[in-house]
Amino acid sequence: MALAFTQPGSAHAKDCATLDDCLQELLQTAKEPKLPGAPMRQETHTLAERIASFPGAAEALVPLLADPDPDIAERAGLALSAMPSIPPEYFDAIRAGLERGLGWLPAALGRIDSEKAAREAVDRYLASRSAPHNQEAAAVVRSGVRAIPRILERAACSTPCPPETHWLLGTVLEQIQPGRERAAEGLMGIAEDPDAPPQTRRGVLGMIGALGRDGLALEPRLLALKAQAPELGAWMDGALVEIGSRRSGEILARRLRQEPSAWILRDIAETGEAARGAGPAVAEFLAGDPLLRAPAALTLGYIGYEPAVPALVAALDDPVDPRATWAAAKALGRLRADAALGVLSEAATAHWYPPTREAARSAVRQIRGEEAEENDERGSGFAMRFFGYEHLDEGIPECEAPAERRHRESRATKLYAHRSPERMKRLAYPSQIVSYGADDEEAQRAAGETVIRVHSGNLREHREIVEQTPGVALRVGGGWLAGSDRGEWGGELMFLPDAGAPQHILDANIEDIYQLGDAIVVTTGLAHLSMNQGVLYRATRDAQGAWQAEIWRILPGAPAASHLVKPDELLVRTRHTGTVVVDAEGRMRMARCRKAAATR
User: Fold this and answer.
1) Would you call 167 exposed, middle or buried from its count of C-beta atoms within 10 A (0-12, 13-18, 19+)?
2) InterPro entries of this UniProt entry (predicted)?
3) pTM above 0.70, yes or no
């Protein structure tokens, strides 16, 4: 075959009109200069998709899987994986290509209409090191209902299963739509089998949860099994919630009261109206734990709990957490609370925090029928939408130069590591760093693994004592309040007495410590990956001289920098959620700016 050489970066897919021409272009891309390990260019992917659209493409591509040039074979695998269907007679050749280790080829198994190919896809998926987000997973999902018999066989664990087996199977089963409901009967049979290993029964209950609403027909049998096998109760509850059982509200309310967390509130919210029975338990948190007020408000809207409207109206004036005021406005709009129109209209113009004003305006439009309700779709993206209260950056300009004048603190009473490194070294204290890894890490490395797998079966906690030099210290009676920030590795607030042992006060990433009016206020928080959390603590001392720290105010986001603007006013620039000023009474406002960047 004669090849026409083209310049790198040419629009291959636009230039070829026939299968032969496009194949020549694809082969040419294998010869273009590239850096070792560099990914294929987007033009190559586009060309592969173009080839996959031609009749007879499989017949032309499959022989290339055995080409001595691995770059050519990889490109053939890429094009095959893009095909809408592949005749079953090519299964053996494709499996031979997989044995060769062609990275783009596994997904092609899902395009072969045969049970043999689907079985191969499931087995390779469970054996892969990069599951569940890889080409093997795509092969299983593309196989659809053809994969279900093998999924059930592997879920039964006739031989002992690795700890992650059922989680991996549930991850792909959840994505098989339509048709995942065909797994329900088989999974329930395994769960009901008293002779099945407990680990298998627990794992299968998790897979039933992955069926979502398609598993709701199993509710009566799950409830009966819960009475017969109380040792499976927690896993049974999880499955009932995931399928949308009428018992969801009761189960989730109990779980929330036992172990309050934003993640459980997220689960309640995602369950939707099936969890409406949890409404009273959720509403209790509107005036409870300051860290849970915002997620509680959002959750009440998602589950449609109208009795919470008066409490949500009151939350519009929450003095502790501006995110909770935003969340209350969002919930009132979702509930279409006519009774809240007046207070929402006032908040839309008068609230100090811009995102709350915008949320109130949107809620008013929703209640009046002038604006459609926000996307309520549940699924893999729901957590990001739910925790959006940590990223209220829409419409807030970055305050590059605050107009508030800095109030200077005395260097005799306030130390920073970058200004007084030697003095801070004398305040060093022992700190414990906790991390996690695999207890078989050495064995994995000896086996040639470059990426160490950590799962529930090999998880090990590591504790290391280090000498920590604080980043900031404030002089108080008899010693120093000192704080450290190690980023994702944590931090702490300590009292370091002039004589005696250090006192640990708080585990948190400490940004700074201030004398604010008559109080001592500590700025804390962390912005890491999808997390953006900031808290102001008040540190107090009891009659015996012991220090405590309690949440005083919630910041819109993690503190990036802060300073006093008056003895009783503190300016905090948060990570992308605004620059705020807090006075000694706890009142908040937006900082005045001389120079503001464009809104995000």
Assistant:
1) middle
2) ARM-like, ARM-type_fold, PBS_lyase_HEAT
3) yes
